[in-house]
Amino acid sequence: MAPMTHLGSNTDGSISEKELQYYARRAGGVSAVITAGTYVMKNGGLPNRPAVDRDELIPSLQKLSTVIKDKGAKAILQIFHGGRQNTAIEDGEVISASNIPEEREGAPVPRELTQKEIKEVIHAFGQAARRAIEAGFDGVEIHGANGGLIQQFFSPHANKRTDEWGGTLENRMRFGLAILDEVKQTVEAHAKKPFLVGYRLSPEETTTPGITMANSLAFIDVLATKQLDYLHVSLNHFWTPPRNGLEDKRSRLEIIQERVGQHMPLIGVEGVYNPEDALRALETGVSLVAIGRELLLEPDWVKKVLEGKEDEIKTTLTLHDKDHLEIPDAQWNLIIGMKWVTLEQEENTYR
Ligand SMILES: Cc1cc2nc3c(=O)[nH]c(=O)nc-3n(C[C@H](O)[C@H](O)[C@H](O)COP(=O)(O)O)c2cc1C
Q: Domain 17-314 is of which CATH architecture?
């Protein structure tokens, strides 16, 4: 199951009953559940997201890992810091690599992190991994994708620093790599059984300047030397070729698979609704396929495939589905409002 923010956590970041029901409904059948992005520091959090920023939340997180593992899936906690995406979960400053706002109306101008604060964020990711271990998770996924703080450091759009944390491509990689090293060291020190460390990234940005596919391949080459348990490539379309920075008409996933697939398992994601979509995705050579929205619509997807009931798989929603699908209110409003899913009885062209 791909990581999906459900906006159903309690306001203090603890795990809610609704959230447990949402995962219990979906964890049966899939090999692993990657949770919604869970914030490692309050100043990197967003409202109604889960938190892993303090020890007192460990019992609450333990409930979440237990619900997932009881259904037979591995439980992987996605850990993130939103940086300039922060929509003020607490009063105070929004921070980022530099004082460059996101390209959207009303985006706050962030304050540039000091070198000391950068070290504190790196440390916070390590502490989040420790808490995930203590809460019984099977692994963590470092969320370096979708515009969060780790991506902000890698991005030539967001990062205008002139110290060792910005400027050259090598310097822009430093923050993500430092977090990965910190997490791996923490796991070595605290885990008593195998504990997964995965990394998620978005290979390109649409802004100018922005991360290019060539930038990402250079970064991925370094990640391939770090004994990662997997690399998860966040795409807005599985099959699209690179936008810029590379003359190659193959899909980005095929290019990445060819480049590093022999060094670490790759997870591909986006647009898997039917078993045929999953098979086509696996033809790229990737080891694993993640399913996001389709598991919102059809929590029994894997079971139905295994039982040969593929024609019973639902790929659309009706307005009456909300309760039996255990979708939290705010996530329901988001996916319907953004037209991220197909609503029956309605013209909807998202897919
Ligand atoms: C409601 C929703 C919330 C999401 N939240 C996250 C998130 O917390 N972390 C993340 O890395 N990706 C997140 N994503 C992206 C998904 O993991 C996935 O990459 C995307 O939905 C494409 O896969 P799909 O076509 O199978 O849905 C989210 C997607 C959706 C639809």
A: Alpha-Beta Barrel (3.20)
